[in-house]
Write a structure and sequence with these properties.
Blueprint: H1 2-15, H2 18-22, H3 35-45, H4 49-60, E1 67-69, E2 75-77, E3 82-83, H5 87-91, H6 97-102, H7 104-122, H8 126-134, H9 141-166, H10 174-189
Antiparallel strand pairs: 1-2, 2-3
Helix pairs in contact: 1-3, 1-9, 3-4, 3-7, 4-9, 7-8, 8-9, 9-10
Signal peptide: 1-23
InterPro entries: Lysozyme-like_dom_sf, Transglycosylase_SLT_dom_1
Domain Transglycosylase SLT: 37-152
């Protein structure tokens, strides 16, 4: 399943199916996730579609209608668990709670835009990924690190799967994949969030 997912995702990315992405039918809760939404959001916000997918896995377990009430009273909505603190800005462009829950593509694009804001603030780093979930407060540093570690594990597994698929299953790129994982593991263990 994962290999087929990545094969189709990379085929879309490589073939430049922007017109097909824009013409894609609206996704509904309970329907199969529209993979092209991750590609389109990644292209629009200059974020790796696999990173967006890994965040969706960690945030909602890929359940488009997921909601979560937080201890601070805020609520997370949809596939990307967009926090209600972002709703005033999102509502100004026509996105409300219902759209985040009813249309996974809207959720992916909203999440990608929030992640892009964090990347603008922290650079393309794991700190930005952690801030997507835990915010930028100094008091939330441990939570940011824990969240980034969860996403990194999902993302790293997908990168390994992609490398095997691109090598035709022969493992030609396994050495490079192991080096990538080792470097990122060391950085996470040492508390460094400086690089992806």
């Amino acid at each position: 399943m994962v290999s087929r997912f990545w094969a189709s995702l990379f085929a879309m990315a490589l073939l430049g199916t922007a017109e097909a992405v824009l013409a894609a039918p609206k996704a509904t809760a309970g329907s199969e996730l529209p993979l092209q939404c991750f590609v389109a959001a990644g292209q629009r916000y200059r974020v790796d579609p696999m990173l967006l997918y890994a965040i969706a896995e960690v945030e909602s377990n890929l359940i488009p209608s997921a909601t979560n009430r937080n201890r601070n009273g805020s609520v997370d909505y949809g596939l990307m668990q967009v926090n209600s603190l972002h709703l005033p800005k999102l509502k100004s462009i026509g996105i409300d709670e219902r759209r985040l829950l009813d249309d996974p593509c809207v959720s992916v694009h909203a999440g990608a835009s929030i992640l892009a804001e964090m990347i603008a603030r922290y650079g393309y780093t794991w700190a930005a990924v952690g801030a997507y979930n835990a915010g930028g407060s100094a008091a939330r540093g441990v939570a940011r690190h824990q969240y980034a570690t969860k996403v990194w594990h999902r993302y790293s597994a997908m990168v390994s799967t992609r490398e095997r698929a691109m090598a035709g299953g022969r493992g030609a790129n396994e050495g490079a994949g192991r080096r990538h994982r080792k470097i990122n593991t060391i950085m996470l263990q040492n508390g460094s969030e400086d690089s992806m």
